User: Fold Mannose-1-phosphate guanylyltransferase from Corallococcus praedator.
Amino acid sequence: MALYPVIMAGGSGTRFWPLSRQARPKQFLPLASKHPLLTDTALRLKGLAPVKNTFIVCGPVHAKTALKLVKGLPKGNLLVEPVARNTAPAIALAALQVAARDPRGILAVLPSDHHVADVKGFQRTLAEAARIAEGGHIVTLGIKPARPETGYGYIQVGDALEGGGRSVKAFKEKPDLKTAQEYLAGGDYLWNGGIFVFRADVMLEAFQKHMPEMQKGLDALQKAAGKRTFPAVLKRVFPKLPSISIDYGVMEKAENIAVLDGDFGWSDVGSFAAIPEVRPADAQGNVVSGDAVLVDCTNCVVLGDKRTLSVVGMHDVVVVDSGDAVLVVPKDRSQDVRKVVEALKAKKRLKLL
Assistant:
């Protein structure tokens, strides 16, 4: 059983502006450790799969950076999307590449910008998911919820399956607070962590069955796989594929889905408010990076650059200095930072994007 990790390194990370920019988005930033999130993702796979089996999916702007951040990654394992078409076409592209090498090879699709505190626990869970996937299931990892979270999708789980894992009753969109509280109290809901494990041939069959509109394009890519013409075919075909997530395209329709509980200190590092989940805080609950002086502050996130940041009498606030821009936002409004990016786009402040 060979495992082929596929790290999804697209995305713009607008909730982390001004640190996250178009040329260097969230997944390339050292938000949770001294390494960029992408590098951390690759490092936690050590021992599960060799680097030669690892693939990275990203856009053309980020290809060189991604290659530098994952040491030993073969250049041919960098799958460059000509345009962003959401996760279903990206996963289909990866499944085709793995199937050309190993039709029954097992893919583990992983976001590049998440954090895992318990790496050994994560590896055990992923290995178990691969074992279940070998039997023909498409496995998704559900994260044990720690709080009534409105920023994540949920998976309603069913009965235990004979081969391992549990059945899926339903995938749920991001809920309001009342609904999230009900999910937590019910005990049969997990966070949707966006991690999928499956055999290459099983997923390609699922695309054929549930997304037949993609099949003509996938057939063309499959015929060109390993040939000189592949880049040209990819450039021509990929933009015509439907822009749809794997959740909508396959996961909500397929019957051979299994969910495996994950409890390994997971965080999607979704906004600056999540930084205290992945970085140590001082006695006052403040997370500080760079040259900063805090007076009478509690539960703040202060991330500096070269200038000294002075923060006085603030509570539950995020202060970020990127050198050319400063952000100040209440921690509970961190999700709205993306609106700053929208405003900058509207004003054509392109140098700040």
